[in-house]
Amino acid sequence: MSEFLSDEEQISRFKAWWDENGVSLIVGVGVAVAVIVGWRFYDNANQEAMELGSKSYAEFKEAVASDRQMVADKIRQEFAGSSYHVLVAMTQASEAAKTGDLQSAAGLFEESIDAGGSTLLGDLARLRLAKVEYALDRKQAALATLSAISNDGYRSWALESQGDIYFAMGQIEQAHAAYTGAAQSMNEGDERPLLNIKVENTAPFNGEFVDFTSDLDQALEAAETSLAQDSESETVEDE
Q1: SS3 for 139-202, per residue?
Q2: Of 43, 66, 213, 237, which is most buried by a Cβ count within 10 Å?
Q3: pLDDT tens, 166-201?
Q4: Is the distance from CB of 176 to CB of 184 less than 8 angstroms?
Q5: Which tens digit of pLDDT belongs to each residue from 76-114?
Q6: 117 DSSP assignment
């Protein structure tokens, strides 16, 4: 007996296989083609949207005061939830804060957070919102806002800010815990001398957490002076 099937047997078996699997194969190929075409269409559309968003944001940055709000509203409508939406709201929030309109600044930072979600931009907006909330004497709200920050790039700064709020409230143990967490969350190679001072000056003394406000203020002032002197020395050496 031949080890190979005859042409007739091969054709017969192929027909039987096709009857069982042909439709599924066609459907599978069709789906694959549709996915590829759809992805390319989406990718092209997404690229076009990014370019339009970038152009609109550039117009916003360059617009004169009388036209700026109109351009901002256009970005909100046409690019809602995009990074350009976040940047526009954050820019307007910062401008409001500079003029002392903290209520408007808080609302605009909240809009930035809603648009940015859990992205880095969203967390940057949370950091800034917390500062405004603290200035409005909404300390608990500021602590909650900082607790919602999840990205590693801002987590350490969020914890340090929490420590500052706890310290201002006289809750030294909580402040020390937050400062310690901030120090442990720093990226490798980062140097934050002032944070180290905060950790040391809120550490327990004889097993108790004591408010060393004056000592901490003096330490911070000394650290700032030292940093300034180091900077001046480096400038002189460069010259």
Answers
A1: HHHHHHHHHCCCCHHHHHHHHHHHHHHHHHCCCHHHHHHHHHHHHHCCCCCCCCHHHHHHHHHC
A2: 213
A3: 999 999 999 999 999 999 999 888 889 999 999 999
A4: no
A5: 999 999 989 999 999 999 999 999 999 999 999 999 999
A6: T
